[in-house]
Design brief:
It is a single chain. The protein is of the alpha+beta class. It has 16 helices and 21 strands. Strands 12, 13, 14, 15, 16, 17, 18, 19, 20 and 21 form a ten-stranded antiparallel beta sheet that branches. A hairpin with a 5-residue loop joins strand 8 and strand 9. 53% of the residues are buried.
Length: 475
């Protein structure tokens, strides 16, 4: 709270010229929400229940013209800009204190073009919005693994999911975008038009502008796929991981597996005697023509599963099967680090921290990357860490606000322990924790080029996000 007893949003709003706010509101087709408005608290709420920030204004945009108006107003008034797409923003950067939130959540239109094999979606769309339309035709683009996730943040920072090893990152599937830059101009960016801007948007995490629409390449996927989902007791982890290392050595690209450690949930699908125990599990999928038993059979032979929830299902069901695990309002802290290789120390760390987790909802996730992600040269897009075969993500998920300190300490301790390992390096923009870290950890060898683009397209740093690049300042 400010020194006046007012929130940062109220203080900032009070400094805005009333005639300028009135002009913005009059010309705005969507809705401008002020701190005094009844819907303000709902407008500033996002998925992560930990985030409690108070902007001066929330601009709920109905179209691109509204986005332009909001960007121009923020620039002229010197307000920090936050962008809300699907709202599934774990780091909380979709809302700010005392600034302006450009809210795209009403801009969710999706259109499939079967002739060009592409889909165009507005910046507020979620994975579920896109999958629903594309699966009408047995098509999909490479997106994430939770249907409630917004496509914007996911794509601009990378975008791993079930199809990544076969079709690459979400950003690798981009054909083109429409973007509003800090000067209020609407630009189209692709490999042919504004190619430098397109390069930076693919991995730049929103540092260069607000993308109002995304056009993706489509692939034949579904409508039925095979979901691989066995759970094992923690004591079986050495045998399971030994077999997993063998499997990933020549795994087909149309199959993928994420290994995670967790506590057995209190659900009827699991043996009641095992509820609350530490476990190691695998979540994967397969989209090929061979029998799924041939693809995953060796993994199931490593040990006797505590439960095996594998089976055929609709692709849209695969994409949404984790939604219930990540409800609105739960408290979240997620942070990731890349791994040069998978050794026993990683598995030991995952098991140790799972056992010590203050929340039974928390997990440690080991992503198998490689495949099509690594095919693209690191200099091809702003996204740098393509050469890393694995990524470790610490997911702290809990309910009680009084347990914030315990869960944050646990998650930060796990990442700190991983950082000491010689195989660990880099950062992933979609799972950044809550701390601002050096941008070079994210951009690596692409950092200097990103600074050049930031200096050209956003010299006043209107779109300033934790962990992102800042424009160059002349001496």
């Amino acid at each position: 709270m400010g020194t006046t007893g007012r929130s940062p949003g109220e203080e900032s709003f009070a400094r805005l010229p009333s005639e300028d706010v009135a002009s913005l509101t009059t010309d705005f087709a969507g809705e401008i929400v002020r701190p005094v408005d009844p819907g303000y608290d709902d407008a500033r709420e996002i998925w992560n229940g930990m985030i409690d920030r108070c902007p001066a204004l929330v601009a709920r945009c109905s179209g691109v013209a509204d986005v332009v108006a909001a960007v121009n107003f923020a620039r002229e008034q010197g307000l920090e800009v936050a962008v809300r797409g699907g709202g599934h923003n774990v780091a909380g950067t979709a809302v700010n204190d005392g600034g302006l939130v450009v809210d795209l959540s009403e801009m969710t239109a999706v259109r499939v073009d079967r002739e060009t094999g592409t889909v165009r979606a507005e910046g507020g769309a979620t994975l579920g919005d896109v999958d629903r339309e594309t699966q009408l035709f047995g098509l999909a683009t490479a997106l994430g693994a939770v249907s409630q996730t917004g496509i914007a943040g996911l794509t601009l920072n990378g975008g791993y999911g079930h199809c990544s090893r076969e079709y690459g990152l979400a950003l690798d599937n981009l054909v083109g975008v429409d973007v509003v830059t800090a000067d209020g101009r609407v630009r189209t960016a692709s490999r042919e038009r504004n190619a430098d801007l397109f390069w930076g948007l693919r991995g730049g995490g929103g540092a260069l502008g607000i993308v109002t629409s995304f056009e993706y390449e489509l692939h034949e996927v579904g409508p039925e796929v095979y979901a691989f989902f066995p759970w094992y007791r923690a004591d079986d982890a050495p045998a399971v991981m030994a077999r997993y290392r063998e499997w990933i050595a020549d795994a087909p690209r149309d199959a993928g597996v994420l290994v995670f450690t967790a506590h057995v949930p209190d659900l009827e699908e699991f043996p009641e005697a095992a509820w609350g125990e530490s476990a190691i599990a695998m979540l994967g999928s397969y989209r090929g023509d061979a029998d799924a038993d041939e693809v995953f059979g060796s993994l199931l032979e490593a040990a006797t599963p505590l439960v095996d929830l594998s089976g055929e299902m609709a692709y849209v069901d695969l994409q949404s099967m984790l939604d219930e695990d990540y409800p609105d309002g739960l408290r979240y802290y997620w942070k990731a680090i890349y791994l040069e290789e998978l050794d026993d120390a990683i598995v030991d760390l995952m098991l140790e921290y799972t056992e010590a987790a203050p929340s039974a909802l928390s997990t440690l996730d080991l992503w198998h990357l490689d495949g099509a992600v690594a095919d693209v040269p690191r200099e091809e897009t702003a996204f740098w860490h393509r050469d890393k075969p694995h990524m470790l993500t610490v997911e702290a998920n809990w309910e009680d606000p009084e347990q914030d300190d315990a869960n944050l300490e646990w998650a930060r301790g796990a990442i700190a322990a991983a950082e000491t390992l010689p195989v660990a390096s880099g950062r992933y923009g979609n799972f950044p924790g809550l701390e601002a870290e050096a941008a070079k950890l994210r951009y690596g060898g692409n950092y200097d080029r990103m600074v050049d683009l930031k200096t050209e397209y956003d010299p006043e740093n209107l779109f300033r996000l934790p962990g992102n690049v800042a424009p160059r300042v002349d001496d």
